[in-house]
Amino acid sequence: MWVFGYGSLIWNPGFPVARQCVARLDGWHRSFCMRSIHYRGTVEDPGLVLALDAQPGASCLGLAFEVAAGAEDRTLAELRERELISSAYLEHTVQVDCAFGPLDCLTYVIDPGHAQYCGGLDLETQAGIIARACGERGPNRDYLWNTAAHLADLGIADPDLEWLAARVRTLST
């Protein structure tokens, strides 16, 4: 069983990993297009979390994780509990390309018809929301900074996240 991570799964997979590789998923882009009303915000003051948003011609670099043998059922149950908390994500199997060749991976993509979908927000608006929001798993800014730092450590460039990380640092001081 393989899982594609593009946001917090990169730095907090939460399941035993046998091996991993940098992987590219075509037709989707990483975007702060989901209002977070649980983990990084509240119903009254939503934060933003990353989701895969469909976009022809786009691609997203992330990590493909092979789940350790014997942990597949538990991993699937825990991922569903974590990722499908509000039904804004849809569970999909996608094909990614990585050093191990093409892989079929489980991943979670945004439902653009869901009330939490907010695609198209400009970066300055995103930065303002991320700088102030906080949910049950802590400040929204920590989620951004962890993701941006781990992408940089992996050598994965994401200019929007890099800009947001710098802007939110300015707004948070």
Automatic annotation (TrEMBL):
One of its GO terms (biological process) is glutathione catabolic process. Its EC number is 4.3.2.7. It comes from the Bacteria. Gene3D superfamilies: Gamma-glutamyl cyclotransferase-like (3.10.490.10). Transmembrane segments: none annotated. Keywords: Lyase. GO terms for cellular component: cytoplasm. InterPro entries: ChaC (IPR006840), GGCT-like (IPR013024), GGCT-like_sf (IPR036568). GO terms for molecular function: glutathione specific gamma-glutamylcyclotransferase activity. This is glutathione-specific gamma-glutamylcyclotransferase. It comes from Gemmobacter aquaticus.
